[in-house]
Amino acid sequence: MSDEDIIKRKLLIDGDGTGDDRRLNVISKTLKKWANSTEDSPLENQATHDKLLAQLSLCEYSVKRSQLLTKTTTKQLENYKKIQEKFEQQIIDVKESIKQNKENLIQAKIWKQNHMMYDLLAQSIAEQPARKETNQRLLNLQAELKELHKEKEFLEHKLDMRRKQFHVLVSSASKLQVMLEEAENSYNSISSVDNNVTDSTGVEPMSE
What we know:
Elements: H1 3-13, H2 20-36, H3 42-127, H4 131-201
Helix pairs in contact: 2-3
């Protein structure tokens, strides 16, 4: 048997390192020696018997101890598994919390920007004149505009009258010009007749 096989066998027999393999070897040797012995006295046989029972009790105790240790180890592994699952769930919860906090941070930044815009708008509104004052100024401007409209109508009416008067004046001047031209033509005609009469009679016309 090779050294490796011996080590494997030793680990199988004495897995927890309590010396069970040596104890089993001692029991085996003692049992063989006791079975092959024919000269031992009853007292020696009883001592050997008690020794074997003690060794077997120790082996039984070791087996029960190993079983209990295995059970405890299994239970600990289950507890470790539960703890691991709990930690994994906590990690998931922490990741979800971080994600939620990031979203909350984004919302907080948006709220802050909106709040700043609101403050600027409120400041701009506060710098504007009051509504009552604005309405009064609007009424004053409307009244002033109404007065200007009346003045415009008056000036347009006055201008229209001036245009009509100018038209009448131009028309009268044209008629007067025609009358003057007609009078001048008549005078020229009369003067021409008088000159012809004077030339034919040799008498100067009487002055008026």
